[in-house]
Amino acid sequence: MSRLLEELSGPAVTRTLTADSVLVLPTGAIEHHGDHLPLATDRIMAEAVATAAVERAVARGVDAWLLHPLAYTKSDEHSWAPGTMWLSGETLMATLVDLGRSVAMTPARRLVFLNGHGGNVALLQVSLRTLRRRFGLQTFLMGFPVPAGDGEVGPDELGYGIHGGHGETSLMLHLRPDLVDLGRAERRVPDHLGAHPRIGFHSTPVIMGWLSNDFHPDGVIGDPTGADATHGAAIFETAVEESAHSLEEIARFDPVPPISRAAGEPTGDIPGGTRQA
Amino acid sequence: MSRLLEELSGPAVTRTLTADSVLVLPTGAIEHHGDHLPLATDRIMAEAVATAAVERAVARGVDAWLLHPLAYTKSDEHSWAPGTMWLSGETLMATLVDLGRSVAMTPARRLVFLNGHGGNVALLQVSLRTLRRRFGLQTFLMGFPVPAGDGEVGPDELGYGIHGGHGETSLMLHLRPDLVDLGRAERRVPDHLGAHPRIGFHSTPVIMGWLSNDFHPDGVIGDPTGADATHGAAIFETAVEESAHSLEEIARFDPVPPISRAAGEPTGDIPGGTRQA
Amino acid sequence: MSRLLEELSGPAVTRTLTADSVLVLPTGAIEHHGDHLPLATDRIMAEAVATAAVERAVARGVDAWLLHPLAYTKSDEHSWAPGTMWLSGETLMATLVDLGRSVAMTPARRLVFLNGHGGNVALLQVSLRTLRRRFGLQTFLMGFPVPAGDGEVGPDELGYGIHGGHGETSLMLHLRPDLVDLGRAERRVPDHLGAHPRIGFHSTPVIMGWLSNDFHPDGVIGDPTGADATHGAAIFETAVEESAHSLEEIARFDPVPPISRAAGEPTGDIPGGTRQA
Amino acid sequence: MSRLLEELSGPAVTRTLTADSVLVLPTGAIEHHGDHLPLATDRIMAEAVATAAVERAVARGVDAWLLHPLAYTKSDEHSWAPGTMWLSGETLMATLVDLGRSVAMTPARRLVFLNGHGGNVALLQVSLRTLRRRFGLQTFLMGFPVPAGDGEVGPDELGYGIHGGHGETSLMLHLRPDLVDLGRAERRVPDHLGAHPRIGFHSTPVIMGWLSNDFHPDGVIGDPTGADATHGAAIFETAVEESAHSLEEIARFDPVPPISRAAGEPTGDIPGGTRQA
Amino acid sequence: MSRLLEELSGPAVTRTLTADSVLVLPTGAIEHHGDHLPLATDRIMAEAVATAAVERAVARGVDAWLLHPLAYTKSDEHSWAPGTMWLSGETLMATLVDLGRSVAMTPARRLVFLNGHGGNVALLQVSLRTLRRRFGLQTFLMGFPVPAGDGEVGPDELGYGIHGGHGETSLMLHLRPDLVDLGRAERRVPDHLGAHPRIGFHSTPVIMGWLSNDFHPDGVIGDPTGADATHGAAIFETAVEESAHSLEEIARFDPVPPISRAAGEPTGDIPGGTRQA
Amino acid sequence: MSRLLEELSGPAVTRTLTADSVLVLPTGAIEHHGDHLPLATDRIMAEAVATAAVERAVARGVDAWLLHPLAYTKSDEHSWAPGTMWLSGETLMATLVDLGRSVAMTPARRLVFLNGHGGNVALLQVSLRTLRRRFGLQTFLMGFPVPAGDGEVGPDELGYGIHGGHGETSLMLHLRPDLVDLGRAERRVPDHLGAHPRIGFHSTPVIMGWLSNDFHPDGVIGDPTGADATHGAAIFETAVEESAHSLEEIARFDPVPPISRAAGEPTGDIPGGTRQA
Nearest-CA residue of chain C relative to B189? Predict the structure, then answer.
């Protein structure tokens, strides 16, 4: 049976979904990834992982469903680069609110963003709370690790292999080798950032605001030159298995401790929540 | 060679596109279509027609490209129906503006919305001018006819077969028969509207504002019971051929009369021209 | 008795209107119409037609009322021309939503936009659904035909006499000859568009986004040189009679088939609908 | 010669206006004024005063022009009353910004709001600076006094005759006696407010936020019972004469001291100056 | 006991406040005030007056509380001057709406803006009604007079000592002499404005839109050269005493006449009013 | 010399700041923190750390300046709790954009958000890129660790001591013991979340959307019962020292590698660069 929710009819959605259903929205991007990778890189990765993870979770008993992916998202760090098709943060947030409102009309209460584009993470985090507060949904965000090369696996990218680097290129060599042109790949590791160990893209004491051409006019951050399909396959398998595990846990998640809840007490759902048009 | 623009790299977009390129954005919908059709009906139709029309136009020498489709659009007439995933008009307009701004960064100047959902038409028309004014793009909107049954071909739908009726169901039987459940189809022609011949959905002296459950709680408008895959195939072929012809004409369209234009005079493009309104 | 709703007191509105009342809002424009016509052309035409049509409909038993006209509307296709006073699409939509919200506070449920400016059509269509969905109003849009010259009546404008051309100029010669300066009229038919028969302003397979100076720097589209007051009078009479007929039909329109409706069932009205400020 | 700017053609605006022209926009309201006055009271007063004042100023040599009036404005204090047609503050501000942007395309630099509705004053004041900053216009706001009855002229309204009271009703008896129904007038002076002398509608140490039904469910504030057309005529004459004087001064106003300005130095105009804020 | 509401816990707010509590929000500004005064001038004055007035009102039995001040407000007239930290009108209004919504969640119903920056007055006035209408709060605006020098007290500023002039500089010499540099003060009275007696900043028949560098590039309007701490102390004492009196009156203000109100009738509060997110 | 930027005059800002100056904006919150902590907890912590860190960084040669703090921020997870004064995400983003635009008018190019409220993190991250892209500023976000009790230092909060728990309460006992009421503190550790190890507040594979009363109606998440001022002092010292180090690194940060940059090449600053998105 198809697990693409869009393939059901409207009445079938009402007949089929329950409060335990888990709806998964892949969020990708159509954006510049250097000259060796297609614009759709993040979209392709997110859809591939989400599709496989939903299938695996379903096989393990989770009532998971795939929503039609969001391809156009927040890529303003690459807005300087022709080919990038970017939504402003305001537009993406409005889209997420509209979709959350729509989901709240169905019996499902669990909505998961499975994200393949780093530039979306902060905004998606903001939206988690907005959708929980306004529509009473249980909302979740998950991504999947695409590790930077460390000198043992792949070239040493010094932790900066975040855009078009070894991991991403390897994963694409696994998923869509026809769209990768390694002959155009060049090392673009911002070595000089090592002089600022407290400042980084994430997980450092200081997070910086950056555009992808802040470090090199190519807009690539990492070293794709030694990318490898076998390594990409391993990244993919880990991403799928980890995501499937997460969906299993989401399916049984309940924020309110079971002991303290009275019978029949609502779980925070706000049916018909805040209607706003 | 792929004609999916998202499969190019960013630099390839700059190398490949020219002012004569025609970018085609399919716009569908994920919305209630009754119990016999999938939510994705409009998305599937728009993508199928656009893909085939671009291919055919390319074969005839047009430099046409397919943009990644917009699946979530303006379905507020079905917002009452669980399963409908709808953007507000404001959100869809913001999305179109953002995509237009992005397209204006490429060498292409011709942007076509190939639309498969009637609820989008008016807003897309508004956006044509906005994108022309703000970004200097040549903008175009085209759909494809999905005729109502007239008693000769299909049941007589009295001109009201506009949502889930004979034509749409037939087309889906051609494109994705696995997603059609004719056993759940019922006649839902709003016969009583015949008493108001001046008031209609379009092309009448008076256009009315309507929600899809204004006429019947099922939200279907038409008679799908006799839908037919062969008729659907004919609708499809006409849609593709007509669309391909339109793309050919768009490729050579120029609003300024050639006699009066001085050599090198711009064609109305406003490079970098984000005029805030 | 005055049929201008603004001439009633607030309490009189409550005493006088019913669910069968039909409120008519003329929507014009203050915009460049070439050097032979006043900026107010569209406003004058819309008000004249609406006033006469309401009067005629009332004489035939319709409880029709004229709302104070909207003079400033969406004229962004002429925003390049000094004298044009234009609202952005966002501003006009906000205005229409505010007025719809206000109308929903009265006993009336039927709101008609009688439009005299082509640049408003698409946005008004969008608003029809918004006002129906948010405020439960029955909403309608009607215009009136101002035919292009075809070589028999008037010069042959090739179907392009849409702005400042033969029909509009003739109608103004009938309504306000003091404001027409035929001595400044010149033929501005975009003959070259004939090479693109599939692309047009409306009713063609492809609708284009355009600005009024895309075809000629004058911003006139049509041939006003032979405009004629007698022809204008005929256009006016047709417009009034057609509009009056439409108002009669609107007055008895009900989207729900009478057989299937239970006694006392609401007609979709949402009293107090969506309050938003 | 007409002084209605909308009666000029677009090119005539460019030929006729100069930096010394003064454009006057009457701002009224369509709102509940009790059961003895029409909804259009403020609109009628503002247009009558503005029309006469422009005519008088022109006779004294000012190059003044009347813009088509704004009838629908910010009447949210009466939003509870059926018949009130109100714009939100956001919508009115957007309208003013759009009109200011339009005016800035003409040769004129002086824009005057001649306001007849108290509920608009604060928002209009905000807009003065916005239009000066964003479009470089010289902007002005003026109203006209409609005095409360003080026991000598009219009943003693204790300074609270601000909405539907003695002055306003008298002025309407002068301008449009056919629309006044004194038989429905009742005294609605909020005497009890005298216990709070520091708190008032304006010009007191404390300004309060109020809705027009805060003081009496009728929404009238004042005592219209003894209204008088002769007194109304005097109010009108004063309003026109004062307004004409103000227009004369506006016509020669220049914020920069003439001594310190170099020849040819701009006066603060920002041609094309849409600075987004 | 602290009268800073932010020093209470959340539950203490519910335990402590009542419908008679008066919440006071000081609104200042961080903006250019010439070279002799700090950017924080308006913020410092507003906070000092508000703190002392609340204390004095509490001593006289008013249940007054100080909200954490708003330092960044609407200073767009000084947006040209580096150092000015300004919110757009839209942003400040959104902030006031959000704070009003928050206050409406507490038992308190009386919210007072105690404003120290002239550029905020009009927008704060607009917000008074918005917060009353949307959240049912009783809303009030008060400032404090900082008189222009008149030749007897201070230099003759001709009524134009409104920004960085004698009064403001004197008050700052009293409150924070360490931040005043009189050596950099210069006379900047726009004497030439005397030729336009009907046009002014407020309380004149015509109000103009202005930027602070319209009159002199320094952006100072007044004559600070003879500012005096003793005079500043007198201004401060008057401001505090007047403000305390006003708070006393606000504490017992009730718009509805006591005779006409039924027992238990609500005072216009809209608990849970208009939820909007 | 004061390091509060608001204490400078406008011209002094221009004279004093350079492209190497580092402007630090503390961002706190006024929100429910349980019954044992004041609403201002996050504001107090952020200001105290920022003030001490700036002082220490200045002593080490950094040209650091403190901007007036933002007290009201995004606390929608506590919007259910009276006393919380929360800005919507849209309002806070608008505020940050306005302040970024203002900072871009000064010579400084480095703007740091020093944040004390977890609910702000994601939105501040979004704003980093917005301000970099639109105004060309170098933007940075830093917080300071307030560790959960782990059973060795403080009670074992299982990693969930994130709101009103051991660390925060200890830090407040150090900073403002007068505002802490340990007698009202109770253990509120959501032990049951341990059953979902993959789902958490941050740094887990899945991030959830949550409101602070999802886990307990008190809205406290952690165990404040054993909070300790000495431990709070240690947290504070670490926060200040770490923040000072970060400011030192920010002061010399440059994203563009020095070798590849041509002399005089801009560093990505976009003077006047308000690119509308």
Answer: C257
